């Protein structure tokens, strides 16, 4: 009696595994059956290759897939994240279809949201359809150049703190991790504008706020494992759970915002910052939970992105002395040498610095891909193929930005590419995304990076640290959503 039970059990296990394998392999025929070009997905990771094991950056992998489709003469294709199918436009015409022309078919990002279990998971970045439209409409008037200009003094004050932090390091001509310094500068700007508190992480890197946000971006292997089991990785949008499902962070931010709001209400404090704007929106029905979620979003969306752009740009300046000198000349000629007097309009007039930043964001698109989700059956133009609602879409930004057909010699840092903006074909250069769901905070992102660059270039010179590599390489094992470099970005800093 005993032996047949074991045998039966083994047969059951074997049949289940074979059945699962057959089902899983069948998933890899999804695009072929639809008549959409696909590559050679492999069991079990699909098209993710080594990036599934953290041995190649996901953005680099997507860049490889982009070239495989393009070299095969395809303008779009279908890829697989594990066994999940993803629509993958390659040609700018098809990119534009998703982001703008047929935006109503691709309104969502398909991000994980669960307001009850993970309250911070729901915000303007992640919300679907009508909820997103409503919040975007409410918040858009608060990101105009006029509103950002009214926050300029906060940015100016932080830029002066940045100089104070760098001065003693420059006097000793030390090699400094500029990514770390800029993270602290941006934490001070975005933390102050989003939460209305003096963050002070430039002066005090060990502050409670600094410690807490370092947890926001730390992802333990255990969390990743739980995510795989609970949600799967077939949809890139599930990554949102990884970041926002953290009870202690949640408590910290809820307490922080509650205390500040109570204080401001009690003392009639009005400040030119995002928190004030969100507080005013209470009259339109915005709840406390929504206020905290949006404040945390503004912080996270501006923090790693802006500090990465700044450190990448300085890295390029260090390796291109002439470009660094030309940028400094422009700053001093147009704005003088007292950076505490630089004005909002003055910063905007720095056209060469602007080109340098554009070229930085081309070479190192801090968010290496854009994502959307199909919400309405979409027919790919010129074909009978339809994309079904629920299908995720990925736009391979790194592939486009480093495509030699669009940007010859793509690893060369050449701000002159942007001399004539018309030369930069649209829907190829997408550092802030495009269409109705582009980056709402791009003005703040640009002003805080330009001002910091102007201030530090005016006072200091940057040269490569010993042994630093010419072209920054994305850390393959990173779980960060931004283009993240292993070991920081070290530069030697000298007083001028
Ligand atoms: C240099 C700095 C920044 C870069 C490179 C950047 C880049 C991006 C990109 C690529 C997207 C996705 C756009 C798309 O899918 O089409 C995005 C979305 C977004 N960004 Fe930024 N960002 C920056 C700074 C900021 C700042 C400072 C804020 C807020 C204060 C912000 C708030 C947002 C929000 C709320 C969204 C979602 C918009 C929506 O779904 O409606 N960003 N950003």
TrEMBL record:
SUPFAM superfamilies in the cross-refs: Cytochrome P450
Pfam families: p450 (PF00067)
Residue ranges of the TM segments: 6-24
Molecular function in Gene Ontology: heme binding; iron ion binding; monooxygenase activity; oxidoreductase activity, acting on paired donors, with incorporation or reduction of molecular oxygen
GO CC, alphabetical: endoplasmic reticulum membrane
Annotated membrane topology: Peripheral membrane protein
Subcellular location, record wording: Endoplasmic reticulum membrane; Microsome membrane
Positions with a binding annotation for heme: 439
Keyword entries, A-Z: Endoplasmic reticulum, Heme, Iron, Membrane, Metal-binding, Microsome, Monooxygenase, Oxidoreductase, Transmembrane, Transmembrane helix
Cofactor: heme
Protein family according to the UniProt entry: Belongs to the cytochrome P450 family.
Name of protein: Cytochrome P450
